[in-house]
Every structure is written in structure tokens, then in C-alpha cells.
Amino acid sequence: MTSSSSTIATVIRTVTRYSSVWRRSSERQGPGIGHTESGRRVRVVADAGAGRIFADVDSPIGLAFLARYPSPTDARSLGEKRLEGFLARHAYSGRRTPAELLGRLRNAPETAVGGLEQDARRNTVIGLVAALAPIVEQISRLTSQIASATRSHPDGAIFLALFLDPKSVVTAAGLRAEIGDNRARSPTNDSLAADAGQAPVTIQSGKRSSVASRWVCDKRLRKHVGVLADSTRHWHPWARDVYQRARDRGCDQLEAVQT
Predict the structure, then answer these.
(1) End-to-end alpha carbon distance in the chain
(2) How far apart are CA 186 and CA 86, in angstroms?
(3) Which tens digits make up the pLDDT trace of 73-102?
(4) 208-212 and 201-205 as β-strands: parallel, antiparallel, unpaired?
(5) Where are the domains of the chain?
(6) What does pTM read for this prediction?
(7) CA-to-CA dists, residue 94 to 101, 144, 210, angstroms
């Protein structure tokens, strides 16, 4: 493996160790913390209004919003101009206008709670945001390192081209790191699929035989290939058709993605 490949592999495995503590496994194309215990608590304790504005409450901009407006009472004075300034400062990349986002916030259902409980929820949100913000910042830094190492690698463009979003670098880098430079390891498509756990295995015992998923494989490579397959079906007509035909045959989500 070249020094560049080693760099990618090292950074990827570092972020994987971080991610094993707080990561949602399905981001779809990058690290996140949405389904960890702290992420769940933010979603449960924070008012539904914040979730109406941002898809991920525990994203950098979502946490910044909760830090500034940790409760419905704090957000009551928020107007369109002030929200517009907030979105500009935090480089909001969504497609909604400030007026639309503010409308979602105002139309969000309010939870009927007493003053003491409201204060407790507010303090809980502040505490969770303070705990999650540095983790999110470190994830962003690691992702930048991964992106830099991948784009500078001779094969980086090949793997990055597999994803529609140019910002999707983590899975591309993971594929590059796990496949490596030695092409002799996977001389055919079938051997690579088997190594990634995407090819079925036949189990025989006497006259009986059955086909099952391949669990003895490179688990990291299997995860990255699965993310690639799942994300591709959302934008590529051929992949979408293959996935839908598998679901029509009765395959579950995992089986259809592996088809």
C-alpha cells in the first residue's frame, strides 16, 4: 500500500473509531451522530419546532440554533430578518427561504408542559448542545482531512465519481482504503463482491443445501459498498430499477440493496 493510501486508511479508521461511539450507521454518505443516545435526547427534549427547520437537529447549524434558541420561549421573538442573518452566518445550504422556515417553526405543535418542566428541558438542551458541539466540530475536521487525502490520491477521482454529491467523500475514501493498491487481491468483480460480503454463499450439509448472505468478509468494505449501493438507487435510474424489482420480488431492504 502506498503512503497516500496509508494516510487515507489511517484517517478513515480514526474517524471510524470516533463514529463507533456516536454515529448513525446509515449517513448515508458520511459520518453523523443523529442516532446516538445524545442525538436522540436532543431530538426528544428539544421542541419539535427546531426539527421542522433543520433535517438534522444535531448538525452544526442545528446545534447552533438550539444553543441560541433552546426553548420555544426563546424562539418567540425570532423574526424573518433575524433568521435570515442566522442562516447566512452559519452557511445554510438548504433550499427553504427564511419565510418558509419561520412558517414551519410557527406551525410546529407545542407541547403542553408546566414552567418547571419547560425550564428543565431548556437546561437539558443547553447541556446536550455543549456536549455535542465539540464532537461535531471534530467530525468536520476529520472529514476535511479525509477529503484532502482522497482528492490528492491518484485513484481519488475514480471513487469520488461514484457519488452524485461532490461533498460525499467519506464513503469514497473508505472504499479506496479497503480496496487498496494491490489489484491482485480482487482480480474479478465476483471476487471483490465476495470480499465485500455482497455475493451469496451456498451452505451444504449432506444432501441439503441453502443459500445465505456472506458474513465472513471485510466488514468495513461491506459497509461502504452497502452505503454506495443504497445512495446510488436514489439518483441512478438503472440502480433504482434493480432495487425496485428486487423489492417487488419480496426482498427486504438489505437484500434489495445487495442485489
Answers:
(1) 30
(2) 50
(3) 888 888 999 999 999 999 888 888 999 888
(4) antiparallel
(5) 3-150, 182-198+208-258
(6) 0.65
(7) 10, 20, 48
The answer to whether 202 and 209 have CB atoms below 8 angstroms apart is yes
CA proximity to 53, closest of 39, 38, 41, 64 = 64
Q: Which amino acid is at 166?
A: P
Separation of alpha carbons 259 and 254, rounded Å? 9
Residues 149 and 173 sit within 8 Å (Cβ to Cβ):
yes
In one letter, which amino acid is 4? S
Kindly report the length of the chain. 259
- What's the count of helices (H) and strands (E) in the chain, helices before strands? 14, 2
Which letter does DSSP use for residue 167 in this model? T
Q: How far apart, in Å, are the Cα atoms of 154 and each of 4, 10, 257?
A: 9, 17, 29
CB 32 within 8 A of CB 55: no
How many Å apart are CA 53 and CA 58, to the nearest integer? Answer: 12
Q: b/e string for 29-41 if b means 16 or more Cβ within 10 A?
A: bbbbbbebebbeb
